[in-house]
C-alpha cells in the first residue's frame, strides 16, 4: 500500500474547488422560481426531499397546498416561510 503525501498546495486547490461548488449551490438555491405555484416534483427538487417526505409534510399540516383536479400545488413563499420558521440554532437543537 503506497502512502500519498498531501501538500498545502493540494489543500488550497481542494479548498478553492469546494468554495466554487458551494457558491454554485448557493446561487441555485437563491434563485427564486419564476412561478408562484409549484408542483410536487418541483418542490421535491427545491427542498431535496423524497415523495414520501413531501406527503408527510402535507398530511401533518406543515406545508399548505391547493388541489385542482389531481394536481397538487404549493405556494413558493409559504415553503420559504416554513423553512425559515424551522431554522435550528445550536442552543435549541436536540
Structure report:
With 94 residues, this protein is mostly helical. The chain has one domain. The protein is elongated and about 60 Å long. Helix content is 53%, strand content 12%. The protein has helices at residues 8-30, 40-47, 51-59, 76-85; strands at residues 37-39, 66-68, 71-75. Strand 2 (66-68) and strand 3 (71-75) form a beta hairpin.
Radius of gyration, CA atoms, in whole angstroms: 19 Å
Distance between the termini: 42 Å
Structural category is mainly alpha
Strand fraction: 5-15%
- How many beta-strand runs? 3
Instruction: Provide the residue-averaged pLDDT.
Output: 87
What is the H/E order? HEHHEEH
Work out the count of structural domains: 1
Major pleated sheet: 3 strands, antiparallel
Order of strands in the sheet with most strands: 1-3-2
Q: Could you list the spans in which at least 5 consecutive residues all have pLDDT below 50?
A: none
- Given the C-alpha coordinates, what overall shape results? elongated
Tally of helical runs: 4
Give helix % range: 40-55%
Give the SSE map:
Layout: H1 8-30, E1 37-39, H2 40-47, H3 51-59, E2 66-68, E3 71-75, H4 76-85
Antiparallel strand pairs: 1-3, 2-3
Question: What's a quick, concise take on this entry?
Answer:
The chain is mostly helical.
Amino acid at each position: 500500500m503506497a502512502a500519498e503525501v498531501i501538500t498545502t498546495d493540494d489543500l488550497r486547490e481542494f479548498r478553492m474547488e469546494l468554495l466554487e461548488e458551494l457558491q454554485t449551490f448557493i446561487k441555485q438555491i437563491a434563485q427564486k422560481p419564476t412561478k408562484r405555484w409549484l408542483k410536487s416534483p418541483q418542490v421535491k427538487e427545491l427542498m431535496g426531499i423524497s415523495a414520501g417526505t413531501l406527503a408527510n409534510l402535507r398530511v401533518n399540516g406543515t406545508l399548505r397546498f391547493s388541489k385542482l383536479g389531481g394536481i397538487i400545488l404549493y405556494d413558493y413563499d409559504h415553503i420559504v416561510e416554513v423553512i425559515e420558521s424551522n431554522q435550528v440554532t445550536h442552543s435549541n437543537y436536540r
